[in-house]
Design goal:
Blueprint (H helix, E strand, L loop, with lengths): L7 H28 L4 E5 L8 H11 L3 E3 L6 H6 L12 E2 L5 E2 L12 H18 L3 E4 L9 H13 L2 H7 L2 E5 L15 H11 L4 E6 H7 L3 H8 L3 E5 L17 H10 L5 E4 L8 H11 L4
Parallel strand pairs: 1-2, 1-9, 5-6, 6-7, 7-8, 8-9
Antiparallel strand pairs: 3-4
């Protein structure tokens, strides 16, 4: 039926329905926009060790990445040169008694005897990161070594509390990574989101949060989307990785990343998503580009 065949009343009714439908569509689109924005894409450099940083910067720009992360201050000038961000600065390392390296994953904040050395190592790193405009720095709980989770929580809080005044002054956030202790990092303490969230709540500072690594937490506890929805306020950053094997995040593995990224966006998160899978294919940059495309969810 064409408008010429309609009565004035029928035409008016249809026009009203159309107007209402258009209004509802506008409201739906506004609600979807308010629910969250698109994540910003980043990549962890260590997964591409055989590609020089200069070349990685050029490739990142071509792929559409805004950040390359887990870099050290010596790399900051290169990032600035290419107009790229470092969404997560790497950890410092300092020599302890007997030549033991303090700061890497096994030797972190859960040991009181590490605190003085860690403060000494982190203070200059936080300052250099802030000066470069890079506002998140990674840290680790350390391994249990027979210590109870409760004691480790107390010790981490005690040590990290010493860093918070400087973090607040500089506008920098210390971010502790959740890692699996089942496959990659045996005995690591911060291996469940509940423990990490408890530490965030204990410190109660916007300058201490968690890095929710999707790969690691799928291995340890699963329930990824529900955890993100429940605990997202404790998460400052996210990493990807295929399960099992930490390879490409496509249909060769068990996670469905589009749904996970959508859940992240629905929390209102507009920070960076770091691709941290280890490419198994010969064309590693093609795998990276594919990962970015998979995680670009409208």
């Amino acid at each position: 039926m064409t408008p010429s065949n309609l009565s004035r009343r029928q035409f008016g009714t249809l026009a009203s329905v159309s107007a209402i439908a258009a209004m509802l569509q506008t409201q739906i689109e506004a609600a979807e926009k308010a629910a969250g924005g698109k994540v910003r894409h980043s990549v962890c450099k260590w997964c591409y060790k055989d590609i020089p940083l200069e070349d990685m910067c050029l490739a990142a720009q071509e792929i559409g990445l805004e950040s390359i992360e887990l870099l050290d201050p010596k790399d900051f000038a290169t990032m600035k040169k290419h107009g790229l961000h470092c969404a997560m600065v790497s950890f410092p390392t300092i020599e302890g008694p007997g030549g033991v390296k303090i700061g890497p994953i096994p030797k972190g904040w859960n040991r009181v005897e590490h605190h003085d050395l860690l403060v000494q190592a982190y203070e200059p790193l936080l300052k250099e990161s802030a000066e470069a405009g890079f506002k998140q720095v990674i840290c680790f709980s350390g391994n249990r070594g027979g210590m109870s989770n409760e004691q480790g929580l107390e010790n981490c809080a005690k040590g990290l509390q010493r860093m918070l005044p400087l973090c607040e002054k500089l506008g920098v956030t210390l971010v502790m990574e959740l890692l699996n202790s089942k496959v990659n990092h045996p005995d690591y303490m911060c291996d469940h989101s509940a423990w990490g969230v408890a530490l965030v709540k204990k410190l109660a500072s916007p300058h201490f949060k968690l890095l929710y690594d999707i790969y690691h937490m799928q291995i340890m506890e699963g329930d990824v989307i529900a955890t993100i929805r429940r605990d997202h306020e404790s998460f400052a950053h996210y990493h990807t990785g295929g399960v099992p094997g930490r390879a490409e995040i496509d249909d060769t593995q068990e996670l469905f990343y589009p749904a996970i990224i959508k859940a992240i966006q629905e929390t209102g998160y507009t920070g960076y998503l770091g691709q941290e899978f280890i490419p198994k294919r010969s064309d590693k940059l093609a795998s990276l580009k594919q990962g970015v495309q998979i995680c670009t969810v409208s």
